[in-house]
Here is the input.
Amino acid sequence: MKILVVLPVKEHHKELFLKSAPKAEFIYEDASKVTKDMLKDVDATIGNISPALLAGCENIKWVQLNSAGTDGYTADGVLSKDAVLTNATGAYGLAISEHMVAAVLCMMKKLDLYSSNMRAHEWKDMGPVSSVWGSKTLVVGLGDIGGEFAKRMHALGSSVTAIRRNKAERPDYVDALYQMDMLDECLKEADIVASCLPGTKETYKLYDADKFSKMKEGAFFLNIGRGTAVDSDALLNALDTGQLAGASIDVTDPEPLPKDHPLWNAKNLLITPHVSGGYHLNETFERIVAISADNLARFVSGKPLKNVVDLDTGYRKFIKSGE
Here is the structure.
């Protein structure tokens, strides 16, 4: 059995993989250097390889992503009908939720404005601020990332409402839990709206002019899911008109954001270049390796894999008893 690993692993990670599959042959390569020929007799891959390279590789039975997002991998013809796709859900919640909390506090306390004043050598009071305590937070997409953010906002004194695709038991750090059909109603009450949605046909430009108009005037908006979920022109207008007090986006559409894009000059907007996740926090990478190693042991022993992706929806398959 051959396993191709394209994660930037160290020796102790390799030892962990070998422990999971003692009889397997491992090939370690940089993802950018992988060729079609390398994949001819590979049984499984660990790490994100270009979907175009995977297309037509009928021998590959398992693809483990190092990302939570599955963009491109669920398209017709990329994976064989017998292949299983798994993602890295569970690895990113810590890093991204902390990024989100930092962004909320930055906007509420106007730290971005004070930073600009500092560079301009201006000692200037920027006026009233707001607080997480006593606020209402709406988390759209209560997966690993959304759940970790909800926990932190609840701990800071915010009343948390969450929306998820499937019905599930409400966790104790969430005050109310709904499905997507209640999104419009929930938007009206939220002081903070956090979008943690993947990029799918259903989420494409979900946040359009109509959705922003339904948000409470003066609300804060965050997007760490996919840039395609937001209509950039509608977001720009919501900021310029004051419908939103501020927004923080770690993802954009298009991405990377062109230098001449009007969002760069938007009022009260924090833009980060898709860096809330990735490997910026080492613990994230360690969790990705642990998830991959666990699934590798399951793969070689014929046990059910974790984080299996539904190729029709692009989401991780919902498990009623475990989430």
Summary: Residues 1 and 24 are 5 Å apart (CA to CA). The domain at 2-90+281-301 is CATH 3.40.50.720 (Rossmann fold). The longest helix spans residues 282-301.
